[in-house]
Specification:
mainly alpha
Length: 41
């Protein structure tokens, strides 16, 4: 599946990610979540 830049930006906007700072924060949260999931195994 291929998404255009516009589609990616629209999807990020729907998730509440509007700025680069928001994107970085979301990535850190995602990494923290998966790190904690791996630690449980």
């Amino acid at each position: 599946m291929w998404l255009t830049r516009r589609e990616i930006l629209e999807q990020l906007g729907r998730l509440g990610i509007r700025t680069l700072r928001d994107l970085k924060r979301a990535c850190r949260e995602f990494e923290s979540y998966w790190h904690s999931q791996r630690a449980r195994m």
